[in-house]
Amino acid sequence: MAGQFCVSITHAKDNADKATVGFVIANAALGSEKDTLVFLSVEAVRLAQQGYADDIHEEGFAPLRDLMANFAASGGKIYVCSPCFKRRKLDDQKLVAGAVIVGGAKLVEFLSDGAPCVSY
């Protein structure tokens, strides 16, 4: 669907640059009036935990916590890979705003109408 856009992020503190740029692009998509989804998998699921991104700030970009908060406040959706989240034994009671733990079928559903997706 022409009105949708997906950003898949697999990194967190292991590559803060990729995690940050992913949310920069996601915010740009929202600003372009796209129904935007960020899919967090692998290490990126850690970003879904309150406080985790608080100390991530790549030079030349806004702090990651601000990018994430702005994304959620503007109506962006954050899907968190359930198996990845469970494997890391994270707390589902401490999710950041906009984050929902989902199975892969939810991502497939979002992409099934041809929504473009970029990965970081």
Provide a descriptive summary of the structure in words.
There is one protein chain. The protein starts with a strand and ends with a strand. The chain has one domain: DsrEFH-like (Hypothetical Protein Ychn, Chain: A). It has helices at about 15-30, 65-75, 80-85, 105-110, and strands at about 5-10, 35-40, 75-80, 100, 115-120. It is an alpha/beta fold. The protein is built from four helices and five strands; from the N terminus they run βαβαβαβαβ. It has a five-stranded parallel sheet with strand order 4-3-2-1-5. The longest helix is centred in the N-terminal third of the chain and has 16 residues, at about 15-30.
Question: What's the helix and strand layout?
Answer:
Blueprint: E1 4-9, H1 16-31, E2 35-40, H2 64-73, E3 77-81, H3 82-87, E4 99-102, H4 104-111, E5 117-119
Parallel strand pairs: 1-2, 1-5, 2-3, 3-4
Helix pairs in contact: 1-2
Task: Quickly list its features.
alpha/beta, 120 residues, Hypothetical Protein Ychn, Chain: A
Supply the number of structural domains: 1
Series of H and E elements: EHEHEHEHE
From the spread of the alpha carbons, the general shape counts as globular
The residue-averaged pLDDT reads 96
What is the fourth-level CATH superfamily? DsrEFH-like
The count of helical stretches stands at 4
Intertermini distance:
21 Å
| E-strand count | 5
Class from helix and strand fractions: alpha/beta
Query: What is the share of helical residues?
Result: 25-40%
Low-pLDDT residue spans: none
Biggest pleated-sheet summary: 5 strands, parallel
Strand content: 15-25%
Radius of gyration: 13 Å
CATH class: Alpha Beta
* Main sheet: strand order: 4-3-2-1-5
CATH topology: Hypothetical Protein Ychn, Chain: A
Question: Architecture, according to CATH?
Answer: 3-Layer(aba) Sandwich
